[in-house]
Amino acid sequence: xxxxxxxxxxxxxxxxxxxxxxxxxxxxxxxxxxxxxxxxxxxxxxxxxxxxxxxxxxxxxxxxxxxxxxxxxxxxxxxxxxxxxxxxxxxxxxxxxxxxxxxxxxxxxxxxxxxxxxxxxxxxxxxxxxxxxxxxxxxxxxxxxxxxxxxxxxxxxxxxxxxxxxxxxxxxxxxxxxxxxxxxxxxxxxxxxxxxxxxxxxxxxxxxxxxxxxxxxxxxxxxxxxxxxxxxxxxxxxxxxxxxxxxxxxxxxxxxxxxxxxxxxxxxxxxxxxxxxxxxxxxxxxxxxxxxxxxxxxxxxxxxxxxxxxxxxxxxxxxxxxxxxxxxxxxxxxxxxxxxxxxxxxxxxxxxxxxxxxxxxxxxxxxxxxxxxxxxxxxxxxxxxxxxxxxxxxxxxxxxxxxxxxxxxxxxxxxxxxxxxxxxxxxxxxxxxxxxxxxxxxxxxxxxxxxxxxxxxxxxxxxxx
Length: 465
Prior knowledge:
- Helix content is 65%, strand content 13%.
- It is of the alpha+beta class.
- It has a domain at 47-57 and 137-302 and 348-464: Outer membrane efflux proteins (OEP), CATH 1.20.1600.
- Helix 7 packs antiparallel against helix 8 and helix 8 runs antiparallel to helix 9.
- The protein starts with a helix and ends in a 9-residue tail after the last helix.
């Protein structure tokens, strides 16, 4: 009779617990309605939003944009050297002691004597305006082409920087999602084990179960609590790493949508195009720059022709040549026009050596391009193989979850009916949690391989759309 009374009290407590749970749920729903504006203020961060935020705010992307802007200034600099160069200059000289020159006395009627005469004036000033225009200079023309190609290089480099940033952010994003899913699995397992603990505690109080079973389940709950805390810490670190990867302040909250992990086997139908890869385009432009560098070295064989002209005003006198004394100063203007022609004849083979060095640089880059093509093809094949393996693993883990759930349900029923031990129940709960974690890990492996295949196809920018 005492045992039946204890069971009745246990069932009554479970009924009260169920009613209290419903009341708490109703309160939570009402609180959610009243504070809906607070919850919605915390926006969900999708992968697309994270990528766009990173390209806008991350330091690498900002520096790449500045390099493109600076390339235009480089073009302007080279253009400026081909335009007329106009300069103005002025000098003012005071000669406290004029230098004397020896003249024969016959000049001034003193035969046989040497006369010392000072030439010049105490004050001398001039103002000159000069112009220089390159009429033919092969190095300037080649430099202008190189500057334009350099701008193209930095534009493609910006694209490559964005793609590298997209890849890094996507990996960090999926890492956070994996930890969130694992934390959810640990929480679900903890909730189920806690419920089992309460049932066993009631059975122990009713004398229908052993105290050692309660102790074992308490140890299991404590272990799950510790695992949950470790997962929370790891998740916080991963969220901080994601914030840093996209250039976001650390005090911002991150919430990822639940539908992030989607398996799309159709991606295997896309055929990679190595020549469409940004890495190859960048190396191709770099090859153009090396060709222009070779032409710049060869330009030293060409003659150069330039026009020069100057216009000036010269003043000399015994007084300071401005203000009130300007009328006592002798002023005269001068000008000159000229052509400057420079013809290289022999420089000891220096130019030829420079051209040979430029040829070596071109050949080295050709080797690097061929090696890069092989590496990109290898990465593409590896990504396709990884996706195939990941798809098989994902499907297997999905079946395992279904089987593990059935085993857990049957074991729970058998345990309630005394047909299974506590060890069987704990093992079933652990197997179900492991199956969920394995599915999450396999999904992450698939998404990482998917990013690599999209990269191999040269379509990383498509993730922004």
